[in-house]
Amino acid sequence: MQRRDMLKALVNSLCVVGPVAFASACGGDGSGSDRIVLYSRAPERGNWSLREIHVARGRPITIDVRNFDVTTHSFVLPALNLDSGFLKPGETQEVTLTPESQGEFLFFCGVWCSDYHMYETGYLIVE
Amino acid sequence: MPRSISPILAALAVICTITSCSKSVEFSGELVGNRRTVEVHVRRFAYEPGIITVRRGETVVIKLVSDDVAHGFYLFDYGLNTYVDPGETRIIGFVADKPGRFSFRCSRTCGWMNPYLYGYLRVVPNRRYHAGIALVLLVAVGSLLLSVRNNKKRREFLFGLIPLNWRFELTKYKPVRKLFRSRWFPTGLILVNLVIFAAILISAWMGGVSPGNANFGVMITWVFWWVLLMTIFVPLAGRFWCMMCPFPLLGDWIQRGKLIGVGREKSWGLNKKWPKKFRNLWPLTLVFFVTTLFFGFFTVLPIATFALLVIVVGVAIAMALIFEKRTFCLYICPVSGFQGLYANFAAVEVRAKDLDVCKAHRPKTCYVGNEDGYGCPWLEHPYDMNRNTYCGLCFECFKSCPYDNMAFNIRPFGTDLLTERKRTDDVYNRRSTDEAFKGLTMVGILVVFFLVMQGPYGWLRDMVRVETLKGYWQFVAGYTAISFLLVPGLFLGASWLSKLASGIRDVPLKKVFVEFSYCLIPLGVARWAAFSVAVMFVNGSYVTNVISDPLSLGWNLFGTAEPVFRPFWTGAIPYFQTLLLLIGLAFSLEYGYRFAEKLFGSSAAAKRGWIPMFLFLVGLSISFLWLFEG
Amino acid sequence: MKSSLRTALWFSIPLLLFAIVFFVAMRAMTRDQLVGVTEEPPITITNTDSDMPLDHSDEFWSGIPAATVHLWPQNARVPYGTEERDIIVRGAYNDQDIAFLLEFEDETENREGPLNRDACAVFFGPADSPATAQMMGHGGTGNIWHWVGDQDTESRQAGRDSTWAVLELFATGPGTQTPLAMQNVSGRGEHEDGRWYVVVKRALQSQQQDALPVAPTEQLLISFSTWDGAKVEAMARKSISIMTNLVFEQN
To answer: What is the ipTM of this complex?
Structure first.
């Protein structure tokens, strides 16, 4: 009887911890998989959620660029001629790319979003 | 001397009202011909100036300048919407042909406090407000005439029309009875809500510190749930939410060992009893007040909503392990206090049908439980319960009663306000200061909520969002003083005047204070509903956005995921608010005079003693009318 | 009485604790936190008594300390820049003139046409300009000294004045560049071993309308930009540095 009760307590606590653990798993950076979420934020509010994205050469990758910030941003990767277009607060834009050559490629926000806009940069690192 | 105090007070009140209406106004900007040009700067989170005053018929040109990030400008009722980018100037031109006070709000997600970025456009003369005051006075005079016509028999009728003892028993229908006796009711509803609650937690966690406008957790909790709670659940059905609240489910499960069926009656945990001294609304009043100190965070920030909900659920589970039954709901849950108090106004009740059946029944299974249902989880005595405050509508007594003697009634609004609790085996049987203070603190809380969430004052919002620590402490100090000193102090003053005017010496002042505090309840329910209605009309479109993509995974379930700010019926808000205030005032005055009679005995003393309290209530209504649309 | 006090404490201490933890956590989360922002070092220019030649190979320039300035692709409007570059900047002033030597890598020498020419520019704005002034004086005003390869060639071949090689412009935002009535900035560019060496020079003071004095008495911001004609860089497609303070070294 005692053991069954403890089992129930365990199930109960899992009910609470479960969603949280699931959420944190979803919210992880997911770097290295085929699909990643990239938050665009002005530098004073955290800058790009990933300032370095590591990807493998020749493997297609989808980036969900999500603007959870308070001003319009965009995602521009000139080396691969990628531009997400304006992302208003709350919007998400999917960007798919297949890096063909090794190297570090600069990406940045293409909208004057903040006094620190010039610093909103990151690198796509192709290995 | 005390007898002449009431006419003096009445005369003073009339003079105050007249002078406040005829106060001269300062207009904004520059007037050239018929064109008024106003430069408005907008920053996070204030319009500068926050209040624009123009004369009706003028052509208004607003030069909107953004001082920091991208902002917007949505003018209620007029329906104008403009966006402005940093460093830009936008010109908005319109003819101010509608008189009254109109809010304008930032229509772009400019930060976490964006939903509170308000300003006011006052188009004078504010006829709507003046008409509102006239209506308040009309209701007041009408109520006075009704109550002064001293007729004991009439007093048995609400507004001289509806008998106070009128009941419509919903459980006389067999399907309803069957539903209430089913063990799946209301647990089934709770399980549905648990799924929604899990989605709220996940999305609120994932939302982090991003603005809550596009967050399922924040929007469902603080726009959808809160508005539903304050405009429908609480006014009509009291603790209706408690019936289907998922918070205590896990605790119940631990205690009972069964989710649906009837498990053990005695908790597996420590099963302690809550100390007698604190079996009242004081703990709830304090917990709710302390929680509201952080409303600037948790009503807009997903991660703060998450933290608050996790703390509440965590405490609920911990309490379930330590204390018996629903001690958490009774004495800790932040939203339980006002629901309990305002449930006395609600139009539904759970009562025993035939008290004689209950008297003969031993043991009282509705309190101790049997194989069909648990003894009252809310620790009430359903067999002689006569007030709603501590009844959580869990319907266990319907299941545990072998005689089918429980009824679910629809009744006239507010009849519980008149009743003294029958039960005498604990300390919270009396009408006492705990319930009085719960009612009184809700006044200050609403004023601060309104000024921060829908007011034009940026400095107040800066204080609440902890722009500087010092500002925040000033806010905490001021807010506490208003809620616990100023409002109760004014009310105590009114009670003192009332006692003085009545000429009755042997009534304790405390009794006057407590008794009259119950006439704040209908007005309280009404003004919270009035405040919340605006929240829904203005922010409702966010709810449609988030339900299409609850976990922000890029879904579009209902085709409404596009993040847009689309308020509706903004022109109707002031009319709704006036109407609700008038209804609340009518009920407050209707019950208030009965309290005066109860307190002061003779009808002559009651009439004299009623005047100061009457003026207080009318004044309070006009103050709220001013707050909402003046 | 004693026991009820204890209960009250049992009740209020956890309440306060939760409140404080909640407050501290939320406050910390809602503060602005700069990520990836570095303070830009100021550009310091040397005071000298001698003349400042337009010829970069003159030994005068080898005596002037050099600073490396990082240029980012222009990233605020279309067409965006594409290249990150490091350029070397030397600056000097005497009691009349002020001059800069810009040195940057460029494999090809392009001196033809407005869309394929190599070019570089120096931007000045008042120190109290808003941050948006980075975008050519947007929200404020600024002067641009724009050296362009094709006009440098023309100024030599047609025997024109060396001021023909540099456009002296006034701007209050992107697309608002307006040539000043008098073109007072002289300049000279040489391409050697895959590098450009460009000298631009003007009098410290300028009396004409819209021209900023660039003198030790002024508080100014400065930034640099370059265009690589071989990579079809023209107009907005360029690399720019982040605005920083211009410091006049005093003797």
So the answer is: 0.86
